[in-house]
Write a structure and sequence with these properties.
Layout (H helix, E strand, L loop, with lengths): L1 H21 L2 E3 L1 E6 L5 E7 L12 E3 L9 E6 L24 H17 L4 E7 L15 H4 L14 H11 L3 E6 L14 H6 L6 H4 L4 E4 L2 E4 L4 H17 L4 E4 L8 E3 L2 E3 L8 H6 L13 H37 L4 E4 L24 H4 L4 H6 L5 E2 L14 H11 L6 E6 L18 H9 L5 E6 L15 H17 L21 E8 L2 E7 L6 E9 L12 E6 L6 E7 L8 E8 L8 E4 L2
Parallel strand pairs: 5-6, 5-16, 6-7, 7-10, 10-13, 13-14, 14-15, 15-16
Antiparallel strand pairs: 1-4, 2-3, 8-9, 11-12, 17-18, 18-21, 19-20, 19-22, 22-23
Helix pairs in contact: 2-4, 7-9
Length: 608
C-alpha cells in the first residue's frame, strides 16, 4: 500500500511538471486578419518551421523574458540621404540637405534619442556607401550625401569632424558605434543606355574607380570594383585602416553587397557573369584556379563557369581575411577591441543544392551560389566577430520561412566564436496595405519570442531606422498605423529594460583596472556618483545597478538603471541619476564594460 502511494505521488508530480512545461509554450497560428479595433485574429492553421505544412510546428514561449545581454540596433543609411543626413524636404531634393553643423547635430541627436527610447545599445551607421565618405579621407572623396555632389567638401570640413562628434555622442548614451562600409559598390543608380565611361565621368576626380578604370566593371548599368584585383582589396583595407586610425569606433561593418545580385529588366533576368564581365581579370589573376582559354562549346562554357565561380568566391574570402588582418593588426598595436561584422543575405545555400544548406526553395536567392559570399565558411573559420543574416521574411513565407532560417543559423554558430544577431525587416510593415502577413504587428515580436529559445541568437537589428520611428501623423495610412503598433509592442513588451552588448572576451587586450574612490552623494531630486578611472583603462561604458538589497545580483538585468560612456579627457568621473529612476533602491553599484564588452566586478555603496 505504501508503495502504491509513492507511485501515485510520483505520477501526480510528473503530471504537474509536464503540465507546467506544456503551458510555457504555445503553438503559432497563421495570421488571419486585423479587426477594426486593431486586435489580431489568428486562423486555425498552425505554422511550421519550413512553411510547407510538413515540418515541425512553431512553438513560442508564452512570456518573453528579456536577457541581460542582447545586441539591439538598427541600420542608419546615408545612401541617397535615406536616413541621414536629412533632406530639407524629403520630397524635393532640390531644396537641399540639412548639412549645417547645427542641423547635422540636431538630426543625429534625434536618432540617438530614438535608439535610447527603445533601449537599443548600438547604432550601425553608413559612413561610406559608394566609394565615398561622410568624413575627410585620403582614400575616398566626400560623398554626395553631405553636399549634394561627390568630391565637394562641406564648408565646415576643416573645423569640425562630424564622425568623431557622432561617435562621442553615441558613446555618451552608452551605445556602440559600428561603422558601415560598402566594399565594392561604385554607383547605385541604374542609368538607361549608359556606358562604363559615361558613369566614370560622373565621379569625383579623386574617386578610386575613376583613377583606376581597369579595376571596375559595369553590370546593369552600375559600376562595381572587381575584387579579382589585388589592388581593389588593398584599397578596401587602406580605407578601413585609415578609419581605424582616425576614429574610436567599436566595429567595422559590411552589408550584403558582394558580387551583384541578379536583376529582372522587362521580361529578361540578368545574371552577373553572363557577359563575361570579369573574364580578363580571371585570366590575369587566376591564382590556382583553372582558366579555360577557348570557350567554343556549351560544355567548355560550363567548365569555365565552374572555375570562375570558385575563383569569385575565393576573391570574397580573400577580402574578408584581409579586412580581418587589418583590424587584428590595429587591435594588437593599440591594445584595442574593434569588432568585425557582416550582415549578409539571409540564406546561405539551399538543402536541395547543398546538404549543409537550409530547407528553403532552391529557386530563391542564396548568397554562396548567387553572389559568391560563403558566409557560413566565415563563421566556421571564425573570420568575423558577429554575423547579422538579413532574415527579412515572415514565418509563413514559403520560399524563405523565418523559423527554418533562424534555426539553421543558430546551428551554424554553435560552439563558434562568431556571435549571431538576426536582421529583421521592420520596413515591410510599411507595405501592410498590400502584403497581408505584414498587417500583423506581432510578426517580429513573435520572431523575438522564437529567437529566445535559441541561446546562440544574441541580438536583433532592424531595417531601417525610419521604421522604428513613431509617426504621429497616422491618418488612414495602414502602413504607418501598423508600424506604430509594431513600435509600441517592442517598447512596451520586449525592450522595456536596458540590456548590455554581448561580451567578446577573445577581443580583450588589456586587464581592466578597478575604479577608485567611489562615492555617492544625494542632491535635490538626484544622486551624484563620483569615482576615479585611469586614463589608460580600457573602459568603454559604466553600468549602474540598483537594488533594495545589499550584494546586488549582477546576473539580473532588471537591476540595470543606466549605461553611460566615460569622460575620456579626465580621470574624474561623475554620473547623475534621477531619484525617479531609483525608487525603492537602497544600494547602487557601478561596473565597467570594457572595449571588448567584458564586465568588471561590481563596486557597491549604500544610498545614505
Amino acid at each position: 500500500m505504501k508503495n502504491i502511494k509513492i507511485w501515485l505521488i510520483f505520477f501526480i508530480v510528473i503530471g504537474i511538471s509536464l503540465n507546467a512545461n506544456s503551458i510555457k509554450e504555445k503553438e503559432l497560428y497563421e495570421f488571419s486578419l486585423l479587426n477594426k479595433n486593431g486586435t489580431i485574429v489568428y486562423s486555425k492553421d498552425k505554422v511550421t518551421k519550413n512553411a510547407l505544412n510538413n515540418g515541425e510546428i512553431i512553438m513560442l514561449p508564452l512570456v518573453y523574458k528579456e536577457p541581460k545581454e542582447m545586441f539591439r540596433s538598427t541600420w542608419v543609411a546615408s545612401i541617397q540621404n535615406l536616413h541621414y543626413p536629412k533632406l530639407r524636404d524629403s520630397k524635393d531634393r532640390k531644396k537641399g540637405i540639412r548639412n549645417s553643423v547645427k542641423e547635422l547635430k540636431e538630426d543625429w541627436l534625434e536618432i540617438l534619442d530614438t535608439h535610447e527610447k527603445l533601449n537599443f545599445n548600438a547604432v550601425i551607421f553608413q559612413v561610406s556607401p559608394t566609394l565615398d565618405a561622410i568624413y575627410k579621407s585620403k582614400n575616398r572623396p566626400w560623398g554626395e550625401m553631405i553636399t549634394g555632389k561627390q568630391g565637394v567638401a562641406p564648408t565646415w570640413a576643416n573645423d569640425f569632424d562630424l564622425v568623431a562628434w557622432m561617435i562621442e555622442e553615441t558613446h555618451k548614451r552608452g551605445m556602440e558605434f559600428h561603422a558601415w562600409f560598402n566594399p565594392y559598390r561604385v554607383t547605385h543608380i541604374s542609368s538607361l543606355k549608359t556606358t562604363k565611361e559615361k558613369e566614370l565621368s560622373k565621379l569625383s576626380k579623386n574617386n578610386f574607380a575613376k583613377k583606376n578604370p581597369d579595376l571596375v566593371y559595369i553590370f546593369d548599368n552600375k559600376l562595381y570594383l572587381d575584387p579579382g584585383h589585388d589592388k581593389v582589396i588593398k584599397h578596401i583595407t587602406d580605407t578601413v585602416g585609415e578609419f581605424l586610425e582616425k576614429y574610436d569606433v567599436d566595429a567595422i561593418h559590411f552589408d550584403d553587397y558582394f558580387y551583384p545580385y541578379k536583376v529582372v529588366r522587362g521580361n529578361k533576368t540578368l545574371y552577373f557573369g553572363d557577359k563575361l564581365e570579369d573574364r580578363e581579370t580571371f585570366r590575369n589573376n587566376n591564382r590556382n584556379f583553372k582558366f579555360i582559354e577557348n570557350i567554343k562549346s556549351q560544355s567548355e562554357l560550363e567548365k569555365y563557369n565552374i572555375e570562375v565561380k570558385k575563383w569569385r568566391s575565393d576573391n570574397n574570402d580573400r577580402m574578408i581575411s584581409a579586412v580581418k588582418n587589418t583590424i587584428d593588426s590595429f587591435n594588437k598595436k593599440y591594445s584595442r577591441s574593434v569588432q568585425w561584422g557582416i550582415s549578409p543575405f539571409g540564406i546561405w545555400e539551399h538543402k536541395e543544392d547543398n546538404e549543409n544548406g537550409s530547407d528553403t526553395a532552391a529557386k530563391s536567392t542564396a548568397s554562396k551560389r548567387d553572389i559568391y559570399a560563403d558566409t557560413r565558411k566565415w563563421v566556421q573559420e571564425e573570420k568575423i566577430d558577429y554575423i547579422i543574416p538579413q532574415i527579412y521574411w515572415e514565418f509563413t513565407q514559403k520560399a524563405a520561412p523565418y523559423g527554418e532560417i533562424a534555426e539553421w543559423w543558430s546551428k551554424q554558430v554553435k560552439n563558434k566564436r562568431t556571435q549571431l544577431y538576426i536582421g529583421h525587416g521592420s520596413y515591410k510593415h510599411a507595405n501592410a496595405g498590400r502584403v497581408k502577413p505584414w498587417k500583423n504587428y506581432e510578426e517580429i515580436p513573435n520572431q523575438l519570442k522564437f529567437n529566445s529559445k535559441y541561446p546562440e541568437i544574441q541580438g536583433s537589428v532592424f531595417f531601417g531606422y525610419t521604421n522604428i520611428v513613431y509617426n504621429s501623423n497616422e491618418g488612414n495610412n495602414l502602413g504607418i498605423i501598423i508600424t506604430n503598433k509594431h513600435i509600441r509592442e517592442l517598447k512596451q513588451k520586449y525592450f522595456k529594460n536596458k540590456v548590455l552588448i554581448p561580451a567578446k572576451p577573445w577581443l580583450d587586450k588589456k586587464v581592466t583596472e578597478n575604479l577608485k574612490n567611489l562615492k555617492i552623494k544625494k542632491l535635490k531630486n538626484k544622486i551624484e556618483i563620483t569615482f576615479i578611472d585611469s586614463l589608460d583603462n580600457d573602459t568603454r561604458f559604466y553600468v549602474i545597478y540598483g537594488s533594495n538589497k545589499k550584494n546586488i545580483d549582477l546576473k539580473n538585468g532588471n537591476n540595470i538603471i543606466k549605461v553611460v560612456g566615460r569622460n575620456r579627457k579626465s580621470i574624474h568621473q561623475k554620473i547623475i541619476i534621477e531619484l525617479g529612476d531609483i525608487k525603492n533602491k537602497n544600494y547602487l553599484g557601478v561596473s565597467i564594460k570594457d572595449r571588448a564588452g567584458v564586465e568588471s566586478k561590481l563596486m557597491e555603496l549604500k544610498i545614505n
